[in-house]
Amino acid sequence: MVDFDAVRAVPSAGLLTPDNAMMLFVDHQPQMFFGAGSADRAGVVNATVGLAKAARVFDVPVVLSTVAAESFSGPLLPQLREVFPEQAIVDRTSMNAWEDEALVEAVKATGRTKIVLSGLWTEVCLVMPALSALAQGYEVYVVADASAGVTPAAHEHAMRRMTAAGAVPVTWLQVLLELQRDWARTETYAATTQVVKEHGGAYGLGLVYAHAMVDPHAAG
Among 147, 80, 136, 68, which residue's Cα sits nearest to residue 104? Predict the structure, then answer.
């Protein structure tokens, strides 16, 4: 039931903002990509880098994590590393990132309660920290297209399991535009549209056309 007297033009507290969110990237590594069969790998890389650039544009705190980087899974995805060349990486032995003390402390240090989570594989290294963080009171937003499972079914069922537990499924572009939210925010307008041009597919090409042929200040 709507209390019309209480209705105001204000955003929901459930929306992601640069001030309430942090991003956790888990195991975007070569060995993990080899086994990822639920989606086009190039598309997952594109979404992951687009998401990372969204964090950079809005100065959202980031935690990068790998598993057994030197002994099995290989280094962090180079394209992701390029976005955060100086960022420390938490390497783990545990499949469940939330059982690694250094990682949990890094997340806590951001002071944020909304975790934007992505990683490989969805059914293992994503679902376990998602459920663990939810159980401790965090809000978890799982970036479906910046993540992948061994099979489409594995990815789908893991997404369903996390959603049933209270996680919110999102996409990388959704996160970017939710952080921007108003095209009148000129301080991040150019950087946001640049990320869309680089990683937004047909939408990005549309912006390239609009800015070149119609109006350089055309909204997204």
Answer: 136
Cα–Cα dist 123/207, whole Å: 35
- Do residues 38 and 28 lie in contact, with contact meaning Cβ atoms separated by under 8 Å? no
d(CA 39, CA 154): 11
The three-point CA angle 162-166-168 to 5° equals 75
- Catalytic status, residue 125: yes
Question: pLDDT digit string (tens) for 44-62?
Answer: 999 999 999 999 999 999 9
Pairing of strands 62-67, 89-92: parallel
Specify whether the CB–CB gap between 156 and 127 falls below 8 A: no
pLDDT of residue 220: 58
| Spans in the chain with pLDDT lower than 50 | none
The tokens describing 112, both together, are 């944020």
Nearest alpha carbon to residue 129 among 63, 202, 54, 204: 63
- What are the beta bridge partners of residue 24? 63, 117
The Cα 82–Cα 17 span in angstroms is 24
| Confidence at residue 212, expressed as pLDDT on a 0 to 100 scale | 86
Active-site position among 55, 67, 76, 125: 125
In angstroms, rounded to a whole number, what is the distance separating the alpha carbons of residues 170 and 143? Answer: 5
Q: Which of 174, 191, 127 is nearest to 16 (CA)?
A: 174
